[in-house]
Structure formats: C-alpha cells, structure tokens
Amino acid sequence: MAKFRRAHGGGKRGSSNIAKIIMLVFIASALFYLIINFTNKNKFQRQDSKEDKFVYNIDISGVDYIEPGKRYFLPSSTTGQVIHHKYYSLSYNEKYEIPEWVAYVLTKKSLRVPNVPRAKRFNPDLKVNSRSAIYYDYRGSGYSRGHLVPAADMAFNEEAMKESFLMSNMTPQKRAFNGGIWYELEQDVRNWAWKDNKLFVVTGPIIDASIKKFIGKNEVGVPNKFYKVLLDIDDPERKAIGFIIPNERSERPLKDYAVSVDSIEKLTGIDFFKDLLTDSEEEKLESSFDIHKWKISNKLYKQRIEVWNKQ
C-alpha cells in the first residue's frame, strides 16, 4: 500500500512527468512523419521529373553511371541489335559491320577526373550477335579505325577506356577527317559538356545506298558522312544541335556543318529523343537550332587549318 500511496502521493509531479513524456512522443512522431514524407516526396519527384532523368544512382571512380536497364533515353534502333556496355550503348549494323549509333552522357564530372593512359589494343566486341569487325579488317586499307565514342571521353578509368577500343565502336574514317575536323568537333563537344555540366551525345555514320566501298575480310562499309547529335537537357536553357560532316579533309568552319536534329532523323530513320522529351519539347528542340548558343572555338579551327590538315 505504501508503494501505491507514493504513486498517488506525487500529485502534480507525477502528472507533470506523464505530460512531458506524452509531449516528447508527440514531437518525435511529428518529426518522423515529416522526415518520411519529405523523403518520399523527393523520391517521387525525381522519378517523375524530366529534369532529373539524368540523376544516376551509382557512382564509380568519381563518374556518374547508369545501369543498362535504366537507359530509357536511348535513340530508336533500325537494326534491332542494341548492345549495352558499362559506359555507353550502341546499335549495331551487321550488314556494314559498323554501329548505326553510339550514345552516352558526357559530364563535367567525368572530364575532371585525371586521364588514364590511352589503350593500345583494339578488341572485337563479343556481344555482337554475328561477331564484330576485327582489327585486321582495317590493316592496309588506308582508313583509320575511327572512334565514335572518343577515347578522350572515356579516359576517366581503365574499363571505360578499354570499352572505347572495342571494334563495334569503330568506323572507317579518312585520316584527314579523323585527325582534322572530326577531332575538332570532339574537342568542342568536351568544351560544351564542361560549360553545361552534362550533354547527351549520339554519334554515327550516315548508312544508306551511298556506301559502296568495303574493306577487310568482313567487308566493313565505308561511310561517306558522319553525324553527331547533342542535347543539353538541363535547366536553365535546354538546347539541341546536330552536325553532318563528309568523311574527308575540310577547310570550312565547323558551323557550316551544323544542322537541325530533324534533318538527321530524316536521313537516318532514327528517333533520337523518343523517350527522353515530351512531344512539344521534342518538336521545339529538334526542328531548329541556334548556333550562337554553341560556342565554337576559333582557336581549334585555326589549329585544324594550320596544323592538323597539313599532317
């Protein structure tokens, strides 16, 4: 009974303690609810927002990475053979033994990583159903093994660098083109990615009846023209542009080869942004371009004319 009396005998003190406990439980519950609600809200916003479609969920060697199964932003494929490597995807054309496109996201973050040494070995792509072209197809042909995903874009780790040297990423390119205007464009693209933080890049050859030259035992088709499609999807200003450049030496400025994305889609039959943009955004960004929003380096152009084109 004494113990029972102490419980009652506390009077105001006992009531005060109980009130404090109830208040603390209430505050803790409210905080827990706010934290969970805020987390879920952000989670769903990231899933639904097109602005965040390039938010990657895994970070490797300081570089953003998208799992192949989540690369919903890829272009359409006219060949039906889309191959996913760790750091880029491609659509392979077996008839000509070259890719119809390669696609990847180039970021300022990846460009800031110290470069690994350039790979020295070209390897066949074992993921290609009927096997890719091989190193010896190009030997003695007079054509370079031209990267579509540049090695310099994949220089952030050794695995990415090795992937860029797969033969499924190669196309026959004239040396004056590969080491001239094409090289200039690749450097400008890296400059734009650095400035805008992130670019979606699609590159490929124009594959049509104009391809009449073949090299090597595997009869690799030699494209007459190449294209590059670029999309800056991040705010504050989204923009897109395309380039179509003949596979030859050029003295003309790079801006002369700038075209709308629509014009490249008509030539290739590829829908570049089919799952990435809304219909209205796609129409707006693909139908026209503003060359002034893409600062082309005069220094690189001068270097091409005075140095690269003379090598």
Mean pLDDT: 84
Number of strands: 13
In the CATH hierarchy, what is the superfamily of the largest domain? Extracellular Endonuclease, subunit A
What is the domain tally? 2
Rounded to the nearest angstrom, the distance between the terminal CA atoms is 105 Å
Please state how the strands of the largest beta sheet are arranged side by side: 3-4-5-8-11-12-13
At CATH level 3, the topology of the largest domain is Extracellular Endonuclease, Chain A
Strand content: 15-25%
What is the 3D shape? globular
Structural class of the secondary structure composition? alpha+beta
Q: Any idea what the CATH architecture of the largest domain is?
A: 3-Layer(aba) Sandwich
Please mark out the parts with pLDDT under 50 across 5 or more consecutive residues, or reply none: 1-15, 33-62
Percent in helix: 25-40%
- Main β-sheet: number of strands, strand sense, barrel status? 7 strands, antiparallel
Number of helices: 9
In CATH, what is the class of the largest domain?
Alpha Beta
Radius of gyration: 27 Å
| Helix and strand sequence | HHEEEEEHEHEHHEEEEEEHHH
Structure description:
The protein is an alpha+beta fold. It folds into two domains: about 45 residues; about 250 residues, Extracellular Endonuclease, subunit A (Extracellular Endonuclease, Chain A), CATH 3.40.570.10. About 35% of the residues lie in helices and about 20% in strands. It contains nine helices and 13 strands. The protein has a seven-stranded antiparallel β-sheet. Strands 1-2 form a two-stranded antiparallel ribbon. Strands 6-7 form a two-stranded antiparallel sheet. A hairpin with a 4-residue loop joins strand 3 and strand 4. The N and C termini lie far apart (about 105 Å). The N terminus is likely disordered.
